[in-house]
Write a structure and sequence with these properties.
Bound molecules: calcium ion, zinc ion
Radius of gyration: 20 Å
Structural class: alpha+beta
Order of helices and strands: EHHHEHEEEEEEEHEHEHEEE
Strand content: 15-25%
Number of helices: 7
Oligomer: single chain
Largest sheet: 5 strands, mixed
Strand order of the largest sheet: 10-11-13-12-14
Length: 307
């Protein structure tokens, strides 16, 4: 469901102001009909360090959940209790000319019954039967219509969908904003160093547990892969859109040396933003695919495949 500004005019009205607000300003209690004025006045006093558009400044969507305290509480208040059965994507137009900004309301995790939401098969997370710790908060409902929604300058919702159940809609997606923010920061770092990055291809983003488990022990997937938590992506830079990693180091070959260029950007971004620290693994080309790099935001540093 994509709703227009006319229906959610209050959010649209504040969106221009909200974009400049810090998370602390947004976390301040706001109520009543003067919300627009209140936000506008706070916007002028705000320090633009961590805006709605993330550390990268390139996020074009934020995930709104009743269980997620903090940064965008005011939006949650405007939407009401978004976890009580109104999942959807609410798009506010014209924050940036030509670029819509979306607020994504999650379907609660409890909507999954017997491993499914509707006809979409998701499966069961490792340890799910024993504990709720570490489980996703909920799912983004991705429809044929909203799949192309931009979550940031370079990525759309559909880029992160599990690659199965092609004909089943809606599909359900777990996606962490911090992953998108980190990928955009890596792209910015690459560009800063003279690498042209128009397009980054996501080979694998979210993997439902039932899909992930099929590759455990064969394709080297981990049973507890971060891909199941929406905070991991296997990517390659593909600005020429030939379906393979670009020759980033311009040595005439496409190989691990090119993925190492991306890894160097990941290292710099993790040094600058310790809260985005996570895993990075290099994968060489095989007959099935070119070289790629796994990036995640698991919260502690992990490296593999570097030799
Ligand atoms: Ca190369
Ligand atoms: Zn991976």
């Amino acid at each position: 469901m994509v709703l227009s500004c006319s229906r959610f005019h209050q959010v649209c009205a504040i969106a221009g102001a909200a974009i400049a607000l810090t998370s602390s300003a947004l976390a301040a209690p706001v109520a009543g009909p003067d919300v627009t004025a209140a936000l506008a006045s706070r916007a002028t006093a705000a320090i633009p360090t961590d805006t709605l558009q993330g550390k990268s400044g390139k996020l074009l969507a934020r995930i709104v959940s009743g269980q997620r305290a903090g940064g965008i509480r005011v939006l949650r208040e405007l939407f009401g209790d978004t976890t009580s059965g109104r999942p959807g994507i609410y798009t506010a137009s014209s924050l940036t000319p030509g670029r819509a900004f979306s607020f994504i309301s999650l379907l609660p995790f409890s909507a999954k019954r017997a491993g499914r939401v509707g006809p979409y098969f998701i499966g069961t997370w490792p340890r799910e039967r024993r504990t709720t710790a570490g489980l996703p908060e909920g799912f983004i409902e991705v429809t044929k219509d909203n799949q192309h929604t931009l979550v940031s300058e370079h990525f759309r919702l559909r880029d992160f969908l599990t690659h199965d159940q092609q004909s089943v809609w809606p599909k359900y997606l777990v996606l962490e904003e911090r992953l998108i923010d980190k990928l955009e920061l890596v792209i910015s770092d690459l560009e800063l160093r003279g690498h042209h990055v128009d397009h980054v291809s996501v080979m694998s983003g979210f993997r439902t547990p039932q899909y992930n488990v099929k590759g455990v022990g064969r394709g080297g997937r981990a049973l507890d892969s971060r891909h199941q938590y929406g905070d991991a992506a296997d990517i390659f830079v593909d600005s020429d859109r030939n379906g393979q990693m670009d020759d980033l180091n311009r040595d005439g070959r496409v190989d691990a040396r090119d993925t190492k260029i991306v890894l160097q950007s990941v290292e710099r971004i993790e040094q600058q933003h310790p809260d985005l620290v996570g895993g990075a693994g290099l994968y060489p080309a095989t007959r099935a695919h070119g070289p790629f790099i796994h990036v995640d935001v698991r919260g502690h540093k992990a490296r593999w495949g570097l030799s």
